[in-house]
Design goal:
One of its GO terms (biological process) is endocytosis. With 1294 residues, this protein is mainly β. A hairpin with a 5-residue loop joins strand 29 and strand 30. The protein is built from 11 helices and 77 strands.
């Protein structure tokens, strides 16, 4: 190409050579013979040709293993070779007299010859005053004439010699005599780019410069890279990097459609989505008939341009197959390339035997097809036959894979010599001298960073306390350059900038961005950014952050289990042994141990001793003893073992690598372990691989850790942060986990303060939440709460009282919105159904008192779908992706059962070791794994939805009561400790307290958009045309159902009228604790006002102002109020005294008989206390308090068992058995509303066993957990325990 680009020609490029070239890596011109010489680094040859491409010849030189550069002078050709590390000379025409001039230690990159006669003195048309051009003077083809030209963003004036700037909106025009355009990114970047300095006008205009040169400084002083500007992402945090993106790009750039980002036009249609919205790869652009393909491109039939090298490579790069036509099979491979065995695909010879399947049929890895290695510059690996450059030998790196390039005799047991600018490590490795004492360890043993304090820094550098050398201009620049920030100490006499409002000033005077505070990293150098009072109260979310137990510091996950007490001198919670051991999924056995297939390590001497020491017999499978052949070597062929052969006494045994296990059918063979078949440690998806497995996250989740084997094991849901909802007392308590501390408020409240919220469910797609009011026996719904809102509940029109049932649990199918409700008969609620018996001779009670109902989201068209063989359903979950519902039964035959959503195909998945399950949760992201709580066993168990792979996740003394699962953790609630705990959902690691003081909690649920909807399930009902009810069935099926009592007609429709739907509750934007009404409007608290409760109320201020202006009037009102209050008190006191006198007169004659189920209590008026006697009631479920002055009789025929686990007794509560009888057994009451009182031991009158007949009270397991009666808490009641049952005892799993 001519120096001026030959603008008059359509294609100014002339192709001199195209074929028989591999990698032309070096080029040189012989000006005296008009020849062009080149060196090919792949074909290992040197050649020359005329300037027009004719007369190609090859020079028979030998030492051309990898020509990197060349030069011509006189009759000689000089070149440098990388593989040989040599500078070589030969005759330029014949290649004879090949001589090595210099051997180098490092790679010789370029050669130059300096001599006045090296190049003839040609006439220069631009030699006189640059041809009169103001900027560029370009010589024409053949050295004839010249033209003046301008740089980019300049225009040529009519005189055809002068250029003036023509800056775009994205550029800044320099002033003075240096008229040029620079990118606006360079304006105020701290470094002058214009000769007159106009691009750096000073701090008064530019403001304080925080970011280093070359980075974009945001308004909030965050720093971002230039390529992140206008990329559609708010990298600054304040949006300043996405401003002014609508301006036109430079002519040589392409503007992305969505973000306005400018990219080079050469990036378009290259197969890479550089814009992020694929606008640079759009068909309208890349397949346009107007698009011109270059000479090095091939035009497809669809007008797409692809590289010529992609044609006939057996890949459909065009997309229409036009680059892979039948004639491709007839095209011969070019020089240095060879055809694959099963296709016409050609690959370079160097790609054979390189360990990669380049042919797609692995034929290029056949040892028979390995190419011959160059004897001069290449080395053949011993095992694979791969050819590697000799420069890779003896460099401490295992390039062959079998280490043969490091163990070859030519290495002499050592590595290559290091150059004068390099540093030799103890292992022989050479590293650049500039890497020594730079704060980063390069040598395997850290030699390069040792004894640095004894070294001297070079000129222009200063030494840190640890010996590290840093540039002098970095001293006292408010940035930590020394590891301990010593460069920022003692800077009092130095003029330096102050920390900006967007920065935090550390105790050592270093300035760091505020976003780096309290993130677990020691950014300051003195840890002051992590130990401030602000950090001790800051959010510290697991799993990437760890909150110390005592110092309350927030650590990075990488600081755990590192052998250092990062929590502080007196807090070792980050190095707790049980937590640190959980970080390792499988232990690595010692050299003298045998690793079993199940990961267990046993002493190697126990292998092949005919005893199953592993527990899976893997230490005995594969053992061999063959007479005289008692070793792997003597037997030959690795002992016949597929993988590992190890010698033992009188024989040897075959075993397998990690991820494999011995084949029971052929013990010497190894078969892959399918880790995904069991409950592996993947948070969500698992992909089995040969010898291992990979973890992946669902589409709406993202990897929070992408580090080696941790990838995919920490899936975090996209979208807004999660909230934990707890049904506690009469409130739906919302715990915000993403803020300063734990923010709790009532997302909804029951109408009556004595009510209980006992069930919660969410519909993430319709953004609705449902709850059960246990006292009213009704279901409410509202929009899902956001922030600190409270919501008004919409009562669903489901007549549970009319059906004679009580709702106990609720769940939602978010694919259809259907509501599933578990309920029990009112008889169970009233205590007429007894608990399970200890004696088999006792009659079996009614087993059909539990039901599962189905309804539309607003409560219409109720349908009973499960009835019979269900006694006390206590929990309910849905699995829309499986088309199933699962529920727990706490009745006589306790169980976990699943059924299709229409109630058919019922299956008991768990029936053993289940006593009183109270709560269930489902992990839809983990293939619908089910969790349930059993307070009797103090456990949380998990099982697959088909009943397989049951494991115990939690076994805790605090007695779990309710559970939910989200992301990587389970959240479980203890009614005993009134605390919400969180821990790993596989049961590993430590248990953390999330919230405490949760009074009377019944249920816990995590609210987040993708908490349950992890797979974007599509219901079969979307294609159905059901008249009333439609439910999802397995395999994307569906079923049409009719309301209860309605028989479907022949066409599947229901012969009943349609009921008008309730108005959907609307989401609102209320703030500051405002209450959302059903219509979306806000009801504000007294402190705020406005449509969104976003303004402070002015009413209170107005009142205060009024009172301050009328001080004396207010004083008179206060005095009058006090006088009236005193008069009312005087009258009340006299009335009280008269009532007390009348009470004492009647008290002596008062006696009563009270009935409590089968218990008759006679009170003695002589021994009667001066308290009002509690009211008697005729119930078998509840027994009120008994006074110590009464005589009690019981009927032994009605002896029943106490199995109530809803309110376990605290260990430190005084035992009532000592109050009743010192030697007799204790009996506990099973009242669903009974709360055992506490007593002072000195106040209890001790009676003998003949004074009291211990009652046997009939107890039922209430389906609804008991809620303390606030009115009865003040009554001094006496607890009578069941002698046959100790509620604090644990049931063994055995």
């Amino acid at each position: 190409m001519a120096l001026d680009g030959s603008p008059e020609l359509p294609d100014p490029i002339f192709k001199l050579a195209e074929h028989d070239l591999g990698w032309p890596n070096a080029i040189a011109i012989d000006y005296f013979s008009d020849r062009l010489f080149w060196g090919d680094a792949h074909l290992n040859e040197i050649g020359f040709m005329d300037f027009d491409g004719n007369g190609r010849r090859h020079i028979p030189a030998q030492r051309t293993s990898h020509v990197s550069s060349m030069v011509i002078f006189d009759d000689y050709l000089y070149w440098a070779d990388w593989n040989l590390r040599e500078v070589i000379r030969c005759d330029k025409w014949t290649g004879k007299n090949e001589t090595v001039l210099k051997k180098t230690v490092q790679l010789p990159n370029d050669l130059r010859i300096v001599h006045p006669m090296k190049q003839p003195a040609y006439p220069n048309p631009c030699g006189d005053n640059n041809g009169g051009c103001s900027h560029l003077c370009l010589i024409g083809a053949g050295g004839n004439g010249y033209t003046c030209s301008c740089p980019d963003q300049f225009v040529l004036l009519p005189d055809q010699k002068t250029c003036e700037p023509n800056c775009t909106d994205r550029q800044f025009a320099c002033g003075g005599d240096d008229a040029k355009c620079i990118p606006k990114l360079w304006y105020c970047d701290g470094e002058p780019d214009c000769r007159d300095g106009s691009d750096e006008p000073g701090d008064s205009i530019c403001g304080q410069r925080i970011c280093p040169v070359g980075e974009f400084q945001c308004t909030n002083h965050n720093c971002t890279r230039p390529f992140q500007i206008c990329d559609g992402n708010d990298d600054c945090g304040d949006g300043t990097d996405e401003q002014n993106c609508d301006k036109a790009c430079d002519p040589w750039m392409f503007k992305c459609a969505a973000t306005g980002r400018c990219i080079p036009k050469r990036f378009t249609c290259d197969g890479d989505d550089d814009c992020g919205d694929r606008s640079d790869e759009a068909d309208s652009l890349c397949m346009s008939p107007d698009r011109n393909c270059t000479a090095e491109e091939f035009r497809c039939n669809n007008n797409k341009c692809i590289a010529k090298a992609w044609r006939c490579d057996n890949d459909d790069d065009c997309g229409d197959g036009s680059d892979e036509t039948p004639e491709c099979a007839q095209i011969e491979c070019k020089k240095g390339w060879t055809r694959c065995s099963s296709s016409y695909r050609c690959i370079p010879n160097w790609a054979f035997c390189n360990g990669q399947d380049d042919c797609r049929d692995n034929s290029d890895e056949d040892k028979q097809r390995c190419p011959t290695c160059d004897d001069v510059g290449e080395f053949r690996c011993a095992t694979t036959g791969k050819c590697i450059p000799k420069r890779w030998m003896c460099d401490t790196e295992n390039d062959c894979g079998d280490n043969s390039d490091e163990l070859d005799a030519s290495c002499g047991g050592t590595t290559r010599p290091c150059s004068e600018s390099e540093f030799r490590c103890n292992d022989g490795k050479c590293i650049p001298g500039s890497k020594v004492c730079d704060g980063t360890i390069q040598c395997s043993d850290g030699l390069d960073e040792s004894q640095c304090t004894l070294r001297r820094c070079t000129a222009g550098h200063r030494q840190c306390d640890d010996g590290t050398c840093i540039a002098e201009h970095k001293w006292c620049d408010r940035k930590k350059d020394c590891p301990n920030a010593a460069d920022e100490l003692h800077c009092e006499d130095v003029s330096r900038r102050t920390c900006s409002p967007f920065e935090f000033e550390c105790a050592n005077s270093v300035c760091i961005p505020r976003k780096f505070m309290c993130d677990g990293d020691n950014d300051c150098g003195d840890n002051s950014d992590e130990t401030s009072t602000e950090c001790r109260m800051a959010q510290c979310d697991p799993p990437l952050r760890f909150r110390c137990a005592h110092s309350r510091l927030c650590l990075n996950i990488l600081q755990l289990c590192n052998g250092m007490p990062d929590c502080g001198p007196n807090d070792f919670s980050d190095e707790h042994l049980s937590m640190c051991s959980s970080f390792s999924e499988g232990s690595d056995c010692a050299s003298d141990q045998f690793k079993c297939s199940n990961g267990k390590c046993v002493n190697a001497t126990l292998a092949c001793d005919r005893k199953d020491d592993c527990g899976d017999a893997s230490d005995e499978i594969g053992c061999s003893k063959h007479g005289g052949k008692t070793s792997c070597e003597a037997f030959g062929n690795n002992g016949g073992c597929k993988q590992i052969c190890t010698d033992v006494r009188d024989g040897f045994y075959c075993h397998c690598r990690d991820g494999f296990r011995p084949d029971p059918q052929s013990p010497k063979e190894c078969i892959d372990i399918d880790e995904c078949a069991g409950n592996n440690t993947c948070t969500q998806l698992c992909l089995n691989t040969k010898g291992s497995y990979l973890c992946r996250c669902h589409e709406d989740y993202e990897n929070n850790v992408v580090v080696g084997s941790m990838t995919g094991k920490d899936c975090r849901a996209k979208g807004d942060a999660a909230n934990v909802m707890i049904g506690a007392d009469s409130s739906l308590v919302q715990l915000s986990l993403h803020g300063t501390g734990t923010n709790r408020h009532a997302a909804a409240k029951a109408n009556d303060e004595d009510s209980d919220i006992i069930g919660i469910a969410f519909d993430p797609r319709k953004e609705l939440m449902y709850w059960i009011d246990g006292s009213e026996r009704t279901i409410y719904r509202s929009a899902i709460s956001n922030g600190n809102q409270s919501h008004e509940g919409q009562k669903l029109d489901i007549d549970f009282a009319g059906m004679g049932v009580v709702p106990t649990a609720i769940a939602v199918d978010y694919t259809t919105g259907n509501l599933f409700v578990a309920a029990v008969s009112e008889d169970v609620e009233n205590g007429l159904v007894t608990a399970r018996k200890k004696r088999m001779s006792e009659p079996i009670d009614n087993q059909n008192t539990g039901f599962i109902f189905l309804a539309l989201p607003d409560g219409r068209y109720v349908k009973k779908i499960v009835a019979g063989h269900l006694q006390q359903p206590t929990a309910l979950i849905t699995a829309p992706s499986a088309g199933r519902i699962c529920y727990s039964d706490a009745g006589l035959h306790a169980k976990i059962e699943c059924a299709d959503m229409d109630g058919t195909h019922r299956q008991i998945i768990i029936k053993d070791l289940v006593f009183s399950p109270t709560s269930m949760a489902i992990d839809e992201g983990k293939n619908n794994r089910i969790y349930w709580v059993d307070p009797k066993y103090r456990r949380v168990d998990a099982v697959n939805i088909d009943g397989t792979d049951r494991t115990t996740v939690v076994h805790d003394k605090h007695i779990p009561y309710a559970v939910d699962v989200f992301e990587n953790h389970i959240y479980w609630l203890s009614r005993e400790s009134k605390t919400l705990y969180v821990q790993d959902k596989f049961g590993r690691g430590r248990v953390s307290v999330l919230a405490s003081d949760l009074e009377d909690g019944h249920t816990v649920r995590v609210s987040q958009k993708y908490a349950k909807d992890t797979q974007r399930v599509v219901s079969g009902c979307e294609r159905a045309q059901c008249s009333h009810l439609c439910v999802t069935l397995p395999s994307s099926g569906f079923a049409c159902l009719c309301p209860e009592g309605i028989v479907p007609q022949m066409d599947g429709s229901c012969a009943t009228q349609h009921v008008e739907a309730l108005t959907m509750p609307k989401q609102c934007k209320c703030t500051n604790g405002g209450k959302c009404r059903l219509d979306g409007s806000c009801e504000c608290t007294s402190d705020f006002e406005g449509d969104l409760c976003d303004k402070e109320s002015s009413v209170s201020r107005r009142i205060i102002g009024t009172l301050s202006e009328n001080f004396f009037t207010v004083l008179l009102y206060i005095l009058a109020f006090l006088a009236a209050f005193g008069l009312i008190g005087f009258i009340g006191l006299n009335v009280y005294k008269r009532r007390q006198l009348l009470f004492k007169k009647n008290e002596a004659a008062d006696g009563s008989v009270s009935f409590h189920g089968n218990v008759i209590s006679f009170s003695n008026p002589v021994l009667e206390s001066k308290q009002d006697a509690p009211g008697s009631e005729f119930s078998m479920q509840q027994m009120t308090s008994m006074h110590d002055d009464s005589t009690t009789f019981t009927n032994p025929v009605y002896d029943l068992e106490d199995v109530d686990m809803s309110s376990p007794r605290s260990d430190n509560r005084p035992s009532t058995s000592s109050a009743m009888s010192p030697n007799g057994p204790s009996t506990s009451s099973a009242s669903s509303s009974f709360v055992p009182p506490t007593f002072n031991q000195d106040e209890i009158e001790v009676k003998t066993s003949d004074q009291v007949i211990v009652p046997k009270v009939e107890i039922s397991k209430p389906p609804i957990p008991a809620r303390p009666n606030k009115k009865e808490k003040k009554e001094e009641t006496l607890r009578v325990d069941n002698p046959l049952y100790d509620p604090d005892s644990e049931v063994s799993d055995v």
